[in-house]
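Journal club prep, notes for RB
We'll compare a predicted complex against what the paper describes. Inputs for the adenosine monophosphate case:
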Amino acid sequence: MTAPLRLFNSLTRELETFEPVHPHEARVYSCGPTVYNYPHIGNMRAYVFADVLGRTLSWKGYALTHVINITDVGHLTDDADAGEDKLERAAAANRQSIWDIAEHYKQAYWADVRALNIRQPAQWTVATDYVPQMIAFAEGIADQHCYRLEGGLYFDVSTVADYGRLARAATDASELGGDSRIDPVEGKRNAADFAIWRTTPAGETRQMEWDSPWGRGAPGWHLECSVMSGAVLGFPFDIHTGGIDHREIHHPNEIAQNQAHCCTNGLDVATNSGAKIWMHNNFLIDRTGKMSKSSGEFLRLQLLIDKGYHPLAYRLMCLQAHYRSELEFSWEGLQAALVRLKRMVMAVEQLMARADIEVPVAGPTEQATHDAIGSLFLPFLARFDEAVAEDLNTAVALTVLDEVLALKKADAGEKLRFVATADAVLGLGLLTLARADLRLRPKSAGIGELDIDAALARRQAARADKDFATSDAIRDDLAAQGVEVMDGDPLGWEWKL
Ligand code: AMP
Ligand code: ZN
């Protein structure tokens, strides 16, 4: 018996058993990055979460279609419609074309995706590729749900039932959006009304603009996600994900548009919102202030790598917390995750020296593992399953994996089979990572790995000859270059910087 998958739906604020819209399928849309700057590691937590969700669905046997969008137009400096377009601003500041900015940061984001072992989604949807569909969507709802102001076409949130339920906001539309972050726009009927098309002001031009029935301009950010998710996955689809900040404005606005588009009303029928389940990861918190993209040394994945931390140590750090809990970043925490990852990789290396198993490229499913693995491992598989099936409790799943790795007198091949199935969900690359891969040389280090290894070999030879003066001299020489020699380290690190 496998455990039914239960997921926390932000719309109902309850755990719900996953029942796919289309039998045996899972269709998931994740709000992707706005490519005006490098993603910080907090942003990447959102995609590690979406990846674990997708991996879990695949592991449970559902045929997954995952879509992540790339926002290259329309996201303003304020989520609720005020300020400038983030990409227009970055382009002006760097005196570059928006298209170049978007391409550069999209590539940087994709590099982080690969480094974190996040699986490629079935499709990356790029907002600027969908503008005609966005215009058609807006035309379809304009008469009944929108009105025009100088700034463009606005959505009237009082025309749909239950607006803001996702955010648990007040239900009286006239009170909604009384948030200080929302700039008052003259003529808005309700404070929470938002632009679905932003008309370029007379006498101005934008780098990115298109003709529309509401004048030349650009789509609103909320419209983009409604259109791309519906166009690729079809309404209703199964799961929509994003960071918890999106629960307050972006997703309530998407839901309102979806209701208007699908000609549905109240949210008591879950499918009326476009997606049945809305899931949100909590934030990575950083008290050093370096996660702000405007600060000089900001917390992006490359900074961690430059300091000598393998990116998968960050992935493990994320998995050690529940996705709905805040996670505080610290270098000590990252170091602890790196050490834990190293212990796992060493244990798996030892197993691989003793046994060989064939692993399907897509990773084994739960069912295939259940049918193939020895009975000693079935209780562990059941506990691993219960953990991930209960709203993706990766922290508990990791402890089950640790227990299996620590089992004495168990068959190496069977253990590897368990590792393969666990890693299909966790995505730590345990079957391909080598211990040496985890030892990254910090960028600031003046000496290369080959030189360190050569010096250590000379020291080894001197010690074998009982030439302790030479051995000590080599050690001191390395210390002067910032390398600490670690004799007898239980984890087998020979040196550290
Ligand atoms: P953005 O590129 O600003 O649209 O954000 C990309 C994703 O990162 C969104 O899903 C956000 O909700 C999410 N996000 C932003 N900041 C954090 C954070 N500190 N921790 C976790 N997720 C975040
Ligand atoms: Zn979105």
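Talking point for the session: The pocket of adenosine monophosphate (ligand 1) is lined by residues 31, 33-34, 42-43, 45-46, 242-243, 245-246, 281, 283-284 (CB under 6 Å).
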